[in-house]
Amino acid sequence: MALRIVETSDPAGTESLGAELAAGLRDGDVVLVRGELGSGKTTLVRGAARALGVTDPVTSPTFSIGHRYRAPHVTVSHLDLYRLAGLEHEDPALLADYLGPGRIAFVEWPSQGDDELSNARLQVTLSHRGGDRRRIELGDERGGGESDE
Ligand code: ADP
Ligand code: MG
Asked: What is the pLDDT of residues 1-15, one digit of tens each?
């Protein structure tokens, strides 16, 4: 069920929304971030990470499935599972360093990891709306978005 639908008109707006949702997160929470390439997933995670106290630059994971950033009260994990064919063929420990107590995790392209990530607290689905406009849907763990690509 959709909890809230927002439209942003620039990257700063999407970062602000990320910061806003970060304020409601707790230690151990997982946030699934869905949407096409360039829809603003990483931008939203950047805003959330900043709000949680991350000062390092937040960039897309390229050489690994994720990054971990130290923040004052928690480690912020940022995973991008785009290149993973399916977590069922991967070492179960693959995600262990990124999820769980002491961490708040944001996961881009989570469809490949449904089992591991089924306890997500929040699901965010972004879509292009022309130019710099983005539609951002916040939902609970079970199908916040009508599109499950
Ligand atoms: P993704 O992680 O979904 O591939 P990114 O966050 O890496 O997307 O990139 C989104 C791109 O779109 C960035 O270049 C960003 O500056 C641009 N952009 C333009 N308008 C917006 C907006 N309203 N929200 C988020 N990003 C936007
Ligand atoms: Mg990204």
From this structure: 578 999 999 999 999
